[in-house]
Design brief:
single chain; alpha+beta; two-stranded antiparallel sheet; 2 strands; 8% strand
Length: 103
């Protein structure tokens, strides 16, 4: 019958985990960065993931949880996105923001 346990296993039998350890894996900064990259998370979702992992004590003590600031917003108007490609379309304007003269 589909969905029934094998005859040797009763539905009332306790679940036995066969892992080597019941201690959870703790993320290093490198592992966390790899996971964020693999999942293609936005900065906001990255911050949420870091916060939750820290809250659940799943980050090594050496992992720095950072919050990102909006200092990049002053530069955003000089960039465009087409599909997966991001490019600066106004280099002169971009260079004027920090006061750099561009020829």
């Amino acid at each position: 019958m589909l969905g029934s346990p094998p005859p040797s296993v009763s539905p009332d039998d306790p679940y036995v985990c066969h892992s080597e350890s019941s201690v959870p894996d703790i993320f290093t900064e490198e592992e966390l960065n790899d996971l964020v990259h693999d999942l293609e998370l936005s900065k906001a979702k990255e911050e949420l993931l870091e916060s939750r992992l820290q809250q659940w004590n799943l980050l090594k003590e050496s992992v720095w949880v950072t919050s990102f600031h909006a200092c990049h917003e002053q530069f955003a108007p000089y960039f465009r996105k087409k599909g997966d490609f991001v490019f600066c379309y106004n280099v002169d304007g971009l260079m004027n923001v920090p006061g750099i003269t561009h020829n």
